[in-house]
Design a protein that fits this description.
five-stranded antiparallel β-sheet, 5 helices, globular, 149 residues, two-stranded antiparallel sheet, alpha+beta, GIY-YIG endonuclease, 21% strand, single chain
Length: 149
């Protein structure tokens, strides 16, 4: 399991490289992942978003800007702001965490993770905007990735 970091500029600047990969935005409460009710199963890792980038450092900062209404470059960050999740105790900004995997084939890995999530939970993570059909790319992932178990 990849290390989970607090979602803030200081952590990103200190630990996150400007490399490609996939990442997850998660919600924690009292040091443990927040359990999210999903259509088919409970998400016991509190995954709010799965994404990819050629520069994870930059992309995570764009998410933070969006959730603070400073930019619309990251749709999921801006969706967090629009839904006013920051006003809900369990979704407050200081409860957000992220983990990541540096990869060259990051686009395909994001699809694998999203399709696995959708297959297991019956829907995409709450802040992901795309339709499952849009991300499918003809790939057939029917086994839920062990990365999220």
């Amino acid at each position: 399991m990849a290390k989970v970091f607090p979602l803030n500029y200081k952590t990103i600047d200190k630990y996150i490289k400007k490399k490609s990969g996939v990442y997850q935005i998660r919600c924690y409460n009292k040091g443990k992942p927040l359990i999210l009710g999903r259509l088919l199963n409970e998400d016991r890792l509190g995954i709010l978003y799965i994404g990819f980038s050629s520069n994870i450092n930059r992309r995570l900062k764009e998410f933070i800007k969006g959730m603070n209404d400073k930019s619309r470059e990251h749709p999921a960050g801006y969706k967090y702001f629009i839904l006013e999740l920051y006003k809900k105790r369990k979704f407050r900004k200081n409860n957000l965490r992220f983990n990541l995997y540096y990869l060259r084939d990051y686009k395909k890995e994001e699809v694998r993770l999203l399709m696995g999530y959708a297959d297991y939970f019956g829907e995409l993570p709450p802040l992901n905007n795309r339709d499952v059909k849009e991300i499918h790319w003809g790939l057939n992932f029917r086994k839920y990735p062990k990365d999220f178990d």
